[in-house]
């Protein structure tokens, strides 16, 4: 970000949860909750008006659910990054949400610091998955392997990944952040970012999550 506060919109049909999250996040000096929506339909209207940087999206809501709302937001060309908030029994939504264009998945019981860092990560243009969610995404991907229309289309690699890029990719698939990868491989974060960009280019991936799914299809992870 350029020094201004990260503008956040919270979408959940439970008003107490929305207000609680807003109160917590507004404690961060670099964040501001600019809107709260109780449904997917309301989220679409408010996002167009408020232009948030990050949208925290519940999955299960009456009317338009979070997955559909995410899909429509992405289609509308919103610049906001969507983080879907989920529970452990929402497995059936995980792959659909990512395929719809969500930039991250976070468990609702995530710690305050973890949620805050996730928002900063997505606001910076990156994607994220908690390690617990990464495992479930890969399992869901395998389960839905027969649904070709819903899968990201992996193309054969014109240029193979280097050994180091493969290491970085596998750590990404484990849920590691750029900082985690840098520490594990004893390299700088700038070098990690260079490898990540190269991986995206070779896989034809739009972001971190998409890269993991495409790598799974190509049996790279």
Question: Helix coverage percent of residues?
Answer: 40-55%
Shape: globular
Beta-strand fraction estimate: 5-15%
Largest sheet: 6 strands, parallel
Q: Helix/strand/pairing class, anyone?
A: alpha/beta
Number of domains: 2
The gyration radius over C-alpha positions equals 17 Å
Sequence of secondary-structure elements: EHEHEHEHEHEHHHHH
First and last CA, distance: 32 Å
Low-confidence stretches: none
Could you state the CATH homologous superfamily of the largest domain? Response regulator
Number of helices: 10
Which descriptors would you attach to this protein?
single chain; alpha/beta; Rossmann fold; Arc Repressor Mutant, subunit A; 6-stranded parallel beta sheet; 50% helix; 14% strand
Task: Please outline the helices and strands.
Blueprint (H helix, E strand, L loop, with lengths): L5 E6 L3 H11 L5 E7 L2 H11 L3 E5 L7 H10 L5 E6 L4 H9 L4 E4 L4 H12 L4 E2 L1 H13 L19 H11 L4 H8 L3 H15 L4 H10 L4
Parallel strand pairs: 1-2, 1-3, 3-4, 4-5, 5-6
Helix pairs in contact: 2-3, 3-4, 4-6, 7-9, 7-10, 8-9, 9-10
GO biological process, one term: phosphorelay signal transduction system
GO molecular function, one term: DNA binding
Pfam families: GerE, Response_reg
């Amino acid at each position: 970000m350029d020094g201004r506060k990260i503008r956040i919109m919270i979408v959940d049909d439970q008003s107490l949860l929305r207000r609680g999250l807003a109160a917590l996040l507004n404690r961060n000096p670099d964040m501001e909750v600019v809107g709260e929506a109780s449904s997917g339909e309301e989220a679409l209207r408010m996002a167009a008006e408020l232009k948030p940087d990050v949208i925290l999206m519940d999955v299960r809501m009456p009317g338009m659910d979070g997955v559909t709302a995410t899909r429509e937001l992405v289609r509308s060309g919103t610049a906001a990054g969507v983080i879907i908030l989920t529970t452990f029994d929402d497995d059936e939504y995980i792959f659909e949400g990512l395929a719809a264009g969500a930039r991250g998945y976070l468990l609702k019981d995530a710690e305050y610091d973890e949620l805050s860092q996730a928002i900063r990560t997505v606001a910076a243009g990156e994607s994220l998955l908690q390690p617990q969610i990464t495992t479930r995404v890969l399992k869901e991907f395998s389960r839905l392997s027969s649904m070709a229309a819903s899968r990201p289309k992996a193309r054969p690699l014109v240029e193979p990944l280097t050994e180091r890029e493969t290491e970085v990719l596998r750590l990404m698939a484990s849920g590691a952040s750029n900082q985690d990868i840098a520490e594990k491989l004893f390299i700088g974060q700038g070098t990690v970012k260079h490898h990540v960009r190269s991986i995206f280019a070779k896989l034809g991936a739009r972001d971190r999550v998409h890269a993991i799914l495409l790598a799974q299809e190509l049996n790279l992870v």
